[in-house]
Amino acid sequence: MNRRYFINLFSLSLFVSCSPILFAATYAAKPKPKNNTSKSNNWVNVGTVEELDKTGQILKEKTPLGPVFIIGKSNSANLIAVNPTCTHLGCNVDWEAEENIFLCPCHASEFTTDGKVQNGPATEPLPTYEAKIEGTAVVVRRA
Ligand code: FES
Fold first, then answer.
1. Are residues 11 and 61 in the same domain?
2. CA 55 from chain center: how many Å?
3. Which domain, by its residues, includes 55?
4. Residues 62 and 107 in one domain
5. Any atom of ligand 1 within 6 Å of the Cβ of 120
6. What value does the mean pLDDT of the chain take?
7. pLDDT at residue 138, rounded to an integer
8. Does residue 36 belong to any structural domain of this protein?
9. Model's pTM, two decimal places?
10. Lower CB density within 10 Å: C or N end of the chain?
11. Count of C-beta atoms within a 10 Å radius of residue 76
């Protein structure tokens, strides 16, 4: 066994032994979307009418249902409520009011107001919630 043959053999064995680790590290790091975690179908308070009317949106990262992003005003006919976690790789989507879509800042997936994918790379819709005003509170539950 000459030196060149030994180095080639060593490099090959190193690559073969590390490949599963690199593969696992690459794919295990993909964040899972934070979908609804609660089995309950109860209404959950996610903010106040005052907060909603101030900016036209409320983002609540932690609720018993998972992250909730609400768009609208207290006098809106329909409030839009989605889980803002992009189903591609887990970034939070932004609301683009002029285009009336949710846009992911990471890879530009677009979602309609009812969570459906308008443009990929995402292929799965955003989970949606029912939302309503209850007194001075904004509440949601699973759609
Ligand atoms: S994480 Fe949203 S498009 Fe990639």
1. no
2. 21
3. 44-142
4. yes
5. no
6. 83
7. 92
8. no
9. 0.71
10. N
11. 14
Best mutation site among 106, 117, 123 for ligand 1 pocket (most ligand atoms within 8 Å of CB): 106
Note the pLDDT of residue 4.
67
**Nearest alpha-carbon partner for 47 in 39, 56, 38:** 56
Predicted local distance difference test score (pLDDT) of residue 76: 79
- pLDDT band, very low/low/confident/very high, at 114 (cuts 50, 70, 90): very high
Q: Which atom of ligand 1 is nearest to the CA of 90?
A: 1
Phi then psi for residue 96, to 5 deg, are -105, 95
Looking at residue 23, its pLDDT comes to 44
User: Coil, strand or helix: which one is 47?
Assistant: strand
| Shared-domain flag, residues 65 and 102 | yes
Question: Which atom of ligand 1 is the closest one to the Cα of 109?
Answer: 3
The domain tally of the chain equals: 2
Helix or strand holding residue 82 (H, E): strand 80-82
CA of 120 to the centre of ligand 1 (A): 8
Q: How remote is the CA of residue 110 from the centroid of ligand 1, in Å?
A: 9
Residue identifier of the C-alpha nearest atom 1 of ligand 1: 89
Query: Is the CB–ligand 1 distance for residue 88 below 6 Å?
Result: yes
